[in-house]
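Researcher: For the annotation table, I need structure tokens for CPBP family intramembrane metalloprotease. Please keep the output clean. Sequence:
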Amino acid sequence: MIGGFGPSLAALVQRLRGIRTPRSARVSRIARWLPAAALLGAAPAVIAAVAGPLFGAPALTMDDVTATFAGSGLLQFLLIATVAGPLAEEFGWRGYLQPRLRVRLSPVATAGVLGTVWALWHLPLFLLTGTWQSTLGPVEGLGFLVSMVPMSLTYWFISERLRGGVPAAVVMHYAGNVALSLLPFTALAGGLCFLVGVLGIAAALLVAVARTPAAPPGDRPANRTVPTGLNGRRRTSPSA
């Protein structure tokens, strides 16, 4: 349980040490990012649940959905879904690491680096009996880990492009946790549909971003000087 809070605890330790992330744009109004965060978070699991049976995956029943609350209850389930992942991770991934990577890398490259770290961090869950990841086969598990790279681009979109910041990332992570708990994929076809759904969403967002101008200068933080490299040289770069 303590290890599950690793990313956010690491960000807190760095903050207490005085190591801050680059200043980012102020979080926009909740109506701007909340619907997108909730929908994009739940969409891959919904796609897998709907499309999976068309390709041979077992169809989900109401018993599968209600089994999620067996032995715990709705309130405990919602509490765990909020803490285990959204609050335990996002202050580290999207609150600390993503802004620092974005000083030097493009959104796509940032998603590649962060998504890879995020996937490797999840590997121990496949070895812990009782976790959802431990129920996945090797191919489904690999698909779940690979999906974290394009999924990281979606998190970038709602946290930076829509200026939702960490709150938007928390909502998206929460929506994804709940959707995967209620609509779990347990077959290869469902896992592939989940991965295709994530890839499709990321590709659609890339097209949308390419066609839509970025926020006007007044909505962005001013350029600032940041360290670059181990030689101590500094350069001026936008922090968003």
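Researcher: And a one-line annotation?
Model: The mean pLDDT is 84.
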